[in-house]
From TrEMBL:
Keyword Hydrolase: yes
Protein name per the record: AB hydrolase-1 domain-containing protein
Family as reported in the entry's similarity comment: Belongs to the peptidase S33 family.
Keywords: Hydrolase
Taxonomic superkingdom: Bacteria
Length: 273
């Protein structure tokens, strides 16, 4: 599909039933929801954000433009109002979209997001190093050098391994297949812009958001869960589901528990008669 500024975005619809518009993590990565099974009665709308994966490698890489791209995907699939599911950075993008266009979002599913502030990075770094253990030295070696494509993929797989409690290498390999170049320009630009938005400003905006929201995360996520504490009480209609002993990508590590929580929330909050 083509956005209003002429950028070509890859998008896909799978399944039959109530649509769910997915926003993948990153920034600068691509859709990794291919193995997400929401159960019968749901249809996944997936897409690669601009500059990454199968979408056109071009900017601009701004929060405003990314929110507009979410709306373009919604409109491109002929949807009036739709549940939006975001993971990690995509959870933040989904929240920003709901704040900008609440009338177009029937429900928000905020998966493994990191809240509204940015003071969690130091603890995350410690958790990450501990999770990698002896593999951290190889990760640091790759991180510090110029890398070819094979080394770039090796670095990503090592890094993503730390996002899981069990079978991390297996799950990380699945995330890296198929493999696309990481867009570090998009990652840097969007990460920096996110840091410029004051936490209190987002808290105040969330107080008036009437969209039913599910915050779902694993208790063993190496991104500290207390970072979400400012978001949860700011939302007027919020459900919090914590998955015990699960890391950052719960639909891979605990697919049944993830699917159960997701479908229960959506059935309760959507008119699916």
């Amino acid at each position: 599909m083509i956005t209003d500024d002429g950028c070509e975005l890859w998008t896909s619809a799978t399944g039959r039933g109530e649509p769910i518009l997915c926003c993948h993590g990153g920034p600068g990565l691509w859709d990794m929801f291919g193995t997400l099974d929401p159960g019968p009665g749901f249809r996944l709308i997936r897409w690669d954000q601009r500059g990454a994966g199968r979408s056109e490698p071009r900017g601009p890489y701004t929060l405003e433009r990314m929110v507009a791209d979410v709306d373009a995907v919604r409109e491109g699939h002929g949807l009036d109002r739709v549940p939006v599911l975001g993971h990690s950075w995509g959870a933040h993008l989904g929240l920003l979209y709901a704040l900008a266009h609440p009338e177009r979002v029937s429900a928000l599913v905020y998966v493994s997001g990191v809240g509204l502030g940015y003071d969690w990075h130091a603890e995350f770094k410690r958790n990450f190093e501990q999770a990698l253990g002896e593999r951290h030295s190889r990760w640091a070696e790759l991180r510090a050098k110029s890398r070819d494509e094979a080394e770039e993929r090796e670095l990503a797989v090592l890094q993503w391994t730390a996002d899981f409690v069990a079978d991390g290498a297996h799950h990380a390999e699945a995330m890296a297949t198929p493999w696309f170049p990481i867009n570090y320009e998009a990652n840097a630009a969007l990460s920096e812009e996110m840091r410029t938005v004051p936490e209190q400003e987002l808290v105040e905006a969330c107080r008036s958001l009437r969209v039913p929201t599910l915050i779902m995360d694993g208790t063993a996520d190496n991104r500290p869960r207390w970072a979400v504490d400012s978001l949860e009480p700011a939302l007027p209609s919020v459900t919090r589901v914590r998955l015990p002993g699960v890391g950052h990508v719960p639909w891979l590590e605990a697919p049944d528990a993830f699917r159960g929580a997701l479908t229960d929330f959506l059935v309760r909050h959507l008119d699916m008669s």
